[in-house]
Design brief:
Its cofactor is Mn(2+). Helix content is 35%, strand content 14%. With 293 residues, the protein is an alpha/beta fold. It has an 8-stranded parallel sheet, sandwiched between helices. 54% of the residues are buried. The chain binds 1-{4-[(3-aminopropyl)amino]butyl}guanidine and manganese (II) ion (2 copies). 1-{4-[(3-aminopropyl)amino]butyl}guanidine binds next to loops.
Length: 293
């Protein structure tokens, strides 16, 4: 049975939003399981309330279609990434707003390249516990610890929020390349520097959300959990500010590794659904209702 997002799957032609399952997880460095992340999010999404009280809309009414999962090639990261890029490009060329569900963070590289090929230039908002700026990790440049090294060297402006793990060389590279870095400890001490984050981003933004950006108390189902993460409220407030002021051209949510803690899967699904609602409001696909919004 094909899994869908939420209760109402919109036929492809009528859908504005395509949720793209990308269960590739061969680039993980520690705990396994991210390949089951997309399915877990889709299953949990069925339990969400379609109407979002905070936004005053039901994002599903914008038309959400869950695409077939992107296959992978077990012995080849390059081939797997080519399949991801081709699948994403096809949906983008069909005019869809793409929400990719990982899978490990290495998938962001082919996804971003597909978005640039289809939509032109934009900056990256990377929300994560990890900077993922290693040139390679465990012998591979296709590691989930490396996507933003490659994207940075390929010319994408980068803003990183929630980081609480990076090595000295990555910090040096970030400074040399003008990465706008907003580490987690600063967010906790000073609050979300929303104006600074927005000022660091361009008009058009691709958002890559690694679920381990959230605190493990809230999101224990990730491959490399670290303490001192973002609260759900901080994540939502950040996304709301970005969607309100920027054109979000696409997004991915990665690194959920289901481990039986269903509250984590519900958290993941709710955040994805909320982000889709923010896109629907900004794009004018839906209008809020009542004073609750
Ligand atoms: N989720 C990630 N992006 N993880 C990246 C891990 C990179 C190595 N840090 C730990 C070094 C251990 N000695
Ligand atoms: Mn990551
Ligand atoms: Mn991470």
């Amino acid at each position: 049975m094909r899994l869908v997002f939420g209760e109402q799957d919109t036929p492809y032609e009528a859908a504005r939003v395509v949720v793209l399952p990308v269960p590739y997880d061969l680039s993980l460095s520690f705990l396994p399981g991210a390949r089951r992340g997309p399915e877990a999010i889709l299953l949990a999404s069925r339990e969400l309330e379609p109407f979002l009280l905070e936004l005053g809309i039901a994002p599903e009414e914008a038309g959400i279609h869950a695409a077939e999962p992107v296959p992978w090639v077990a012995g080849s990261a390059e081939e797997s990434h080519r399949l991801i890029r081709e699948a994403a490009l096809a949906h983008l060329q069909a005019g869809k707003f793409l929400v990719a569900l990982g899978g490990d963070h290495s998938i962001t590289h082919p996804l971003v390249l597909a978005h640039r090929e289809a939509l032109g230039e934009f900056s990256l908002l990377h929300i994560d516990a990890h900077a993922d700026l290693y040139p390679e990790w465990q012998g591979s440049p296709y590691s989930h610890a490396s996507p933003f090294h490659r994207l940075l060297l390929e010319g994408f402006p980068l803003v990183q929020v929630g980081i609480r793990a990076m090595d000295r060389d990555s910090l040096r590279l970030a400074r040399e390349r003008g990465v706008a870095l907003f580490p987690a400890h600063r967010l906790h001490r000073e609050g979300l520097p929303l104006k600074e984050i927005l000022a660091a981003l361009g008009k058009r933004v691709y958002i890559s959300f690694d679920f381990d950006a959230l605190d493990p108390s809230l999101m224990p189902s990730v491959g490399t959990p670290l303490p001192g993460g973002l609260s759900y409220r901080q994540a939502v407030d950040l996304l709301e500010a970005v969607f309100a002021e920027k054109e979000v051209v696409g997004m991915d949510f990665v690194e959920l590794s289901p481990n039986g803690q269903f509250h984590a899967e519900m958290t993941a699904a709710q955040l994805v659904y909320h982000a889709i609602g923010l896109k629907a409001l900004k794009a004018g696909w839906l209008a809020p209702e009542g004073e609750h919004s």
